[in-house]
Amino acid sequence: MSQSIETRCIHGDIHKYREDSRAISFPIYQTASFSHMEPGHNGSGFDYTRESNPTRSRVEETVASLENAAEAVAFSSGMAAITACFELFRPGDHVICSEDLYGGTVRLFHNISEKNGLVIDFVDSTDLNAVKAAIRPATKAIYVETPSNPMMNVTDLRGCAALAKAHGALLIVDNTFLSPYFQNPIDLGADIVLHSGSKFLGGHNDTISGFLCTADQELGDRVRLIAKTLGNTLAPFDSWLVLRGLKTLAVRMERQQKTALTLAIWLSAQPWVKKVYHIGLPDHPGYEVNAGQSRGFGSTFSFAVDSKETALKILQGVRLITFAESLGGTESLITYPVVQTHPDVPAEVREHLGITDTLLRLSVGLENEMDLIADLKAVTED
Ligand SMILES: Cc1ncc(COP(=O)(O)O)c(C=O)c1O
Question: What is the pTM of this model?
Fold first, then answer.
């Protein structure tokens, strides 16, 4: 029987792998290559680090175990993972995407994927009828973020999985915002789960990584061949940093979630806040759907303030919260999506989605909640 998720964060799949030296902290295999015993027989299962490396294998097995996946492949960034994922498709293939996505993903689709012949439609994936209506004979995948970055839109994963299956297409879910601790899309019918491991998995704002997790082995083998061919795999030291980060995933997620909800409730009561987009607040339109498919709501959310001046005053005035892009780490970060994460999304699309110059995204870290509130108070009350 598989261990609980908290235990697997620390030990991975305990039945699968033991390190020969019995080191408690898995070693960093800082080597480019591995010696062969005889032609065609390497003795260790490892040839060359671009293709595979024990430290990377260890973090891949741990992430696969957390996502209930048959296979996980570790990449040098979340974008590297998404790039590899899109190598599964051919010119002429059609992909349906959530209209609200991390801006780098949109940039990849417009600058690279479309150039390579993929046809991509952006739809409001919170509306299953809109997803269904977008399906064509050439549709090969439905690609969603739930909750989405930065508008925190929630997509019904079981509903999308049913639509994808009925059409023989893949459901691909970017699970970065909730992490496997709170959500396991494969259990709901997804075929591929991806992560920017630079966020909650690494968890300390100190490394960049990405993961593709597959529901079945055949798809996992295809992804692994793409990774080996593209060569955008995760280095041994970064693999180790993610392994170390994962050990505390459960406690970080719980604590950060609690603090974030306190901040969201506090912000909702401030006269200079127009709207708080937090999926743990019962008035969020995706509250019920999220509650039915996940075990929590994470610690990243967005809020709209009354003017651009207020937004800039907060960004430039906070002292404890850092004005920086990224999320999911121990340090609280505040981000200006319109300029930092989504500048490559066309202006009219940003406007339609609500990514305006009054929108701020907050990733709540592990600091004391009263200190974080005091930081925001000090800027907005002077
Ligand atoms: C939801 C989401 N997916 C993917 C990425 C890309 O990941 P990375 O920055 O590790 O390349 C990000 C980055 O912010 C993200 O927020």
Answer: 0.97
Residue 198 Cβ inside 6 Å of ligand 1? The answer reads: yes
79 lines ligand 1 (CB under 6 A): yes
How far apart, in whole angstroms, are the C-alpha atoms of residue 116 and residue 108? 11
Residues of the chain with CATH 3.90.1150.10: 250-380
Q: Which fold has domain 250-380?
A: Aspartate Aminotransferase, domain 1 (3.90.1150)
Contacts (Cβ under 8 Å, ≥6 apart) of 281: 264, 265, 268, 287
Residue 233 has φ and ψ, to the nearest 5°, of -85, 170
Residue of 198, 206, 211 with the most ligand 1 atoms within 8 Å of its CB, for mutation: 198
Q: For ligand 1, is residue 145 a contact (CB within 6 Å)?
A: yes
Place of tokens 């498919």: 293
pLDDT value of position 38: 87
CA geometry: angle at 230 spanning 225 and 236, to 5°?
Answer: 85
- Over residues 280-310, the pLDDT tens digits come to 999 999 999 999 999 999 999 999 999 999 9
Report the candidate in 366, 362, 337, 340 with the shortest Cα–Cα distance to residue 277: 362
Ligand 1 center to 328 CA (angstroms): 11
